[in-house]
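Re: the 552-residue chain
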Amino acid sequence: MLLSLHIENYALIRKLDIPFETGLSVITGETGAGKSIILGALNLILGNRADTSILPEGENRCLIEGFFRMQSPAFTALLEENDIPPDDITIIRREVFASGKSRAFVNDTPVNLTLLKTLGDLLIDVHSQYDTLLLRDADYQMEVLDQFAGNMELLDTYQKQYLTLGKNREYLTFLKDKESKAKLEQDFQQHLFQELEHAALGDNEQESLENELNILSNAGEIKNILFQLLEILDNGDKTILTDLNNVQQLFRRICSLNPSLQDKAERIDDMYIEIKEIARELDHLSNHISHDPGRMEWVQQRLDLIYQLQKKHKVNDVQALNHIRLELKQQLASLYSLDHEISQLEKQLQAEEIQLDRHAKTLTASRMRVKEAVKEQLLAMIRQMGMPDGRFDILISDLQEAGPSGRDRVQFLFSANKGTSPGEISRMASGGELSRLMLAIKSMTGSQRLLPTMIFDEIDIGISGETASKIGQILVNLASRKQLIVITHLPQIAGRAAHHYLVFKESGENQTKTCVKLLNETERIREIAQMISGEAFSEKTLDTARELMGNN
């Protein structure tokens, strides 16, 4: 429950400490006194976005602190999960600076707004007069029914599956589009790959073939030059080898006379051996060089193929062609992999759809099971609220396909008048009737939810007289189960409260500020009398106020 609220420099509030008690507390005050300002400050520590316009002129920092007693295991687990030390009293602090920055702390541990809002949703259920518009919304009507059915955990599971299924369907569409585009190019890519695969080009083949073609094209001239070289080296009448042999003989003779020339003789011997080997290789080459038109044609055709492929693929060497061949092979393989991935995803989607449909049917059955009980309970409450001829029904119809909340469409149907069939709430309910319907629903759902504190902000607009008194009793009943804080303008409700806070303005020489006071019994009687008759209330009005308070 909310123990107290500390506010500094928030709108018209300079500094304010408000203690809160268990049971039913009401907050009253003239229009514009600042009742909604207090709720706005509270919403800041519940995770709402901050606006620097809340800072009074000349102030640099706004501070809101809320003190809570919360024993919920879910709340404690959330604190521990985020490394926040649990304590008997949880302190939530929010600071807003003129620079636009803000900070939030839970038990002096810094937290972000997402976590702050999650914690706030476990602490307080806030309902304002504008929430009445929600009653016209089909999604809200579905949510009300699910709360009564206890479907929240199942619905959470279903919605996660629904989102996953939606993402997988989008991904399948993407894959199929990718496959469709790839198949448009598949035949051409297959042709290009087979052409390169059939060519079976070696990385150094082009250079080798170009050298061979050059040799085949000049075979006659090459053979003639080789013949002349061999004549000079070893085959002629007077050859280099013959002369070197004579030089060898002379060196042998001189070395016997002068051994210091032995190294020169050895070099001549090496030279002789090297030239002899060159002559042998040239002779071998000469024997294997011939003008071969068939081989020359094959080499030329092979080179033409290489040049043609290089031109086609706009590259300059065989290595690049082989790289393209590997890329085409991978692309064709990935198309097969894409087919396989699509097939597997389709099977997965089929299984997910079956599971989703199973959960949707479970949700439908649960909603149908509680529909009549909710209808009867709500009918009883609206009749207590001054609508004796009110009729209410819940229509659950089947959708053609699963939606975010299942396969159901939930409609609340209402009629306030005898002889009028229930219709859509948006067409059939006036503003005051909407307020009473919403209050009845909030009272019912408030009993279902485990939140320790509920706040009603003027959701009794359009209600008066005996109906207001009956609503006061409903609020008293609800407050017996949880802390209930009601901002109201109705004396019938204010009279039912266990604790009564008055919000008022004080004007000083240089500023106006909002103040809050917890009223004693005498002050309460006067405030309720003023709510009944205005400033000029009579003794009779005071008696009426005492009577309203005596109904507790």
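The CA atoms of residues 400 and 407 lie 7 Å apart.
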